[in-house]
């Protein structure tokens, strides 16, 4: 089972911090030089012969070995190669009409920084060129080039950094390539360590129930299970904050000099917006899957957006789901977290399901206003929760709930308490004002 430990690292002295900065800066510089050579060939620029793979990356590696070390320089080159291979794979999928996995035109790998704002401090270290020791005084040690070995205060030749915090996965069978970067948002060096965890750490489902999820923006997730439980995670407040940040980014971009497209302030806002969304996704996935595991769910069905984007009713809402909530990223995160609980995740089309009446089966006369679905036959209910109850009767029972059952719960509601009539309870997931969930029974 593949997992990742993400943690902050702290240099022990000022000299160690400068060595780390020089290491990450050289890594970014090597990446940029390799990327430039390949990008010029991809664009068929004059003076650059051959295709992307004809760039003389060996010469560039040798240029930086003194600072990075041979293994790290090689790893930077391989990381860039992987990025280009991924780009070509996505480009091929995008132009394949039978493949709908890529909906936006992919762009070639980007550069780490620019001339105006400087390079972004980011680098990689080969899996056998670093060690991590977990404990009361957790530490990271890694290889540096000969030019840096005499400039740090760590024992022997490796640079030693203090690890801040505890890992999610301290016991693992193997480790992967380490990524290091400087987070300008909070002035902290951070690291990401991919690890392989034994399958013994994976839970076994308690039963064979199923659940269906509808993913959106106003309601982040609407979930119905075969046990009769329904969960609604609200997202309007989170989306409003996303939109405010986006507007501020646009305002700052409008004030940039001609020819400039970004600034430190703009990049900081982008990172802040992304981290806020990622935190909400992680909190939601963890909370939802803990509930589903307790319910005995072993399979989760997610509504795919492919047919919806091609045929459905609201470009604005679909854009909100893709741009704000990052549908593909969320499904991947959900599947990754579900693996820990032994729960499988499948994606199925949900085209027209939120406009189909569960009472009479009609779609041409139904009306959807925001979250409410109404039909001339007399049905009225929550569109997202109803959609999955109707969409797959073999997966989810056809029991329906009226819009009054899905109520907005005050932020002050107790984590495990009930409403006055005992029909609903509410929790707040993650930090305040991130995600709210209503649970119906």
Automatic annotation (TrEMBL):
GO molecular function: DNA binding
Range of residues in the leader sequence: none
GO biological process, one term: transposition
Residues in Cas12f1-like TNB domain copies: 327-387
InterPro entries: Cas12f1-like_TNB, RNA-guided_DNA_endo/Transpos, Transposase
Region span, Disordered: 95-118
UniProt keyword list: DNA recombination, DNA-binding, Transposition
Keyword DNA-binding: yes
Probable transposase IS891/IS1136/IS1341 domain segment(s): 193-308
Domain of life: Archaea
Matches recorded under PANTHER family: TRANSPOSASE (PTHR30405), TRANSPOSASE, PROBABLY IS605-TNPB FAMILY (PTHR30405:SF26)
Family: In the N-terminal section; belongs to the transposase 2 family. In the C-terminal section; belongs to the transposase 35 family.
Descriptive protein name: Transposable element
């Amino acid at each position: 089972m593949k997992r990742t430990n993400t943690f902050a690292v702290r240099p022990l002295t000022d000299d160690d911090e400068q060595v780390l900065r020089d290491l990450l800066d050289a890594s970014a510089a090597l990446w940029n030089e390799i990327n430039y050579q390949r990008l010029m060939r991809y664009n068929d620029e004059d003076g650059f012969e051959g295709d992307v793979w004809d760039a003389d990356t060996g010469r560039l590696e040798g240029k930086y070995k003194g600072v990075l070390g041979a293994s790290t320089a090689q790893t930077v080159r391989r990381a860039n190669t992987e990025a280009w291979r991924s780009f070509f794979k996505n480009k091929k999928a995008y132009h394949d009409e039978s493949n709908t996995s890529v909906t936006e035109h992919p762009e070639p790998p980007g550069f780490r920084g620019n001339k105006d704002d400087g390079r972004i401090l980011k680098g990689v270290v080969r899996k056998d060129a670093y060690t991590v020791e977990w404990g009361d005084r957790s530490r990271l040690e890694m290889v540096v080039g000969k030019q840096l070995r005499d400039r740090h205060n760590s024992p022997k030749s490796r640079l030693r950094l203090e690890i801040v915090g505890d890992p999610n996965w301290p016991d693992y069978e193997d480790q992967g390539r380490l990524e290091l970067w400087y987070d300008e948002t909070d002035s902290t060096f951070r690291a990401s360590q991919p690890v392989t965890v034994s399958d013994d750490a994976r839970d076994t489902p308690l039963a064979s129930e199923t659940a269906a999820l509808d993913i959106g923006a106003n309601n982040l997730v609407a979930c119905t299970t075969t046990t009769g439980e329904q969960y609604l995670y609200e997202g309007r407040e989170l989306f409003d904050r996303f939109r405010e940040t986006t507007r501020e980014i646009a305002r700052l971009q409008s004030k940039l000099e001609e020819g400039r497209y970004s600034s430190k302030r703009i990049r900081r806002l982008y990172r802040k917006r992304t981290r806020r969304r990622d935190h909400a996704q992680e909190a939601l996935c963890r909370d939802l899957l803990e509930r589903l595991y307790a319910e005995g769910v072993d399979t989760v069905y997610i509504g795919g957006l492919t047919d919806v984007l091609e045929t459905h009713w609201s470009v604005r809402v679909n854009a909100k789901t893709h741009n704000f909530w990052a549908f593909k990223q969320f499904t991947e995160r959900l599947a990754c977290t579900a693996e820990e609980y032994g729960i499988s995740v499948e994606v199925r089309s949900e085209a027209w399901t939120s406009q189909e009446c569960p009472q009479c089966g009609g779609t041409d006369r139904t009306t959807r206003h925001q979250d409410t679905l109404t039909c001339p036959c007399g049905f009225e209910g929550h569109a997202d929760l109803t959609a999955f109850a109707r969409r797959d009767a073999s997966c989810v029972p056809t029991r329906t709930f009226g819009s009054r059952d899905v109520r907005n719960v005050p932020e002050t509601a107790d984590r495990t308490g009930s409403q006055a009539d005992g029909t609903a309870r509410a929790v707040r997931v993650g930090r305040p004002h991130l995600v709210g969930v209503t649970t119906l029974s």
